[in-house]
Amino acid sequence: MTTTMNLTLKTPSEAGLTWAVTRNENARTDADREAILADPGFGNHFTDHMVDICWSEKGGWHRPRVSPYGPIPLDPAAAVLHYAQEIFEGLKAYRHADGSIWSFRPYENAARMQRSARRMALPELPVSYFIDSLKQLIAVDGSWVPSAAETSLYLRPYMFAKEAFLGVRPAKKVAYYVIASPAAAYFPGGVEPVNIWLSTTYARAGKGGTGAAKTGGNYASSLLPQAEAYEKGCQQVAFLDPAGNLEELGGMNIVLVRRDGTLLTPESDSILEGITRDSILQLAADRGHVVERRPIALSEWRDGAASGEIVGAFACGTAAVVVPIGRLLAEDFEILHHGDEASELALSLREELTGIQYGRVEDRHGWMARLDA
Ligand SMILES: *Cc1c(COP(=O)(O)O)cnc(C)c1O
């Protein structure tokens, strides 16, 4: 008879946590992993381990673990299943030419997760624990970071209310997890402009709502309008605020390009502040572009496109990085952009940003953080 014992090792970390690390005895073989990494798609495959940290009102953050990837035991009354008290983050691990593994501005993700937590009445995970959790996962699953051009290991930290209680109040028991999923190049055949459907029937978020928090509910409410977008032949949906100002897409921010090279992007307390957008705008500012962050009426885009004042637009987010918008389709009008100038700018900013992320371009802002050391 053979028995497999899952050995658990206690591993102290720089952040002052003592991790209980249990290796997955059924981890994929090198050959199986390589087969997955050769064609990973997005969000289909997960690595051999996961990380979690518990939180309770009494005990604070405790019991940090690295365990074999697998189902989470959850009470049917867990508050997240009923009241959606949940937040998440998304960032990538990039393999550089020398084999080292890096992430891009993870401290920004950590800080944003704290802001999301405050809005959703969840506990704030200390920034050092957030960074530590990524490093712990990479320590056991680093071989899952692919090396082909523009591929990455997508890291998904998330937190949810696990207390079994149907009363409506912030949960007193919460779980934080990190899982990881290898991701293929987003545009294997070269970056293609997207068509966007402008939803006027549905809103993504309201004033004082949860639009600025990275929370599942915002995504749940975007699924129906997203389905409408597909029906109209569009890949993404754009939302407006009640005053008719431009907000963002379901999961990406929007930037407009003016003829004089000025970049315009909505400022609003009901959109999610993307780290990709912030970085792209910084790179553009470094090149001398003027950047305006302010409320932008849809009419400014529409009239500007008609007069030639607005020459293009692009969307940005971690998954796709930057993608030019070819067409905005609405119920009773459309905006077409085939401005080469704006696409070229979007693509060259994309090239510079991915160059920094993959270690080909100097990281002059100190954005990269090493995960495997
Ligand atoms: C995550 C997200 C973005 C993009 O943020 P990045 O930090 O650039 O990945 C934009 N909009 C929404 C709604 C998001 O959830």
Automatic annotation (TrEMBL):
Entry keywords, A to Z: Amino-acid biosynthesis, Aminotransferase, Branched-chain amino acid biosynthesis, Pyridoxal phosphate, Transferase
InterPro entries hit by this protein: Aminotrans_IV, Aminotransferase-like, B_amino_transII, BCAT-like_C, BCAT-like_N, BCAT_family
Keyword Ribonucleoprotein: no
Species classification: Bacteria, Bacillati, Actinomycetota, Actinomycetes, Micrococcales
Biological processes annotated in GO: amino acid biosynthetic process; branched-chain amino acid biosynthetic process
Keyword Translocase: no
EC numbers on record: 2.6.1.42
Species whose genome carries this gene: Agromyces bauzanensis
Identification of the protein by name: branched-chain-amino-acid transaminase
CDD domains: BCAT_beta_family
N6-(pyridoxal phosphate)lysine PTM sites in chain numbering: 214
Family: Belongs to the class-IV pyridoxal-phosphate-dependent aminotransferase family.
A GO molecular-function annotation: branched-chain-amino-acid transaminase activity
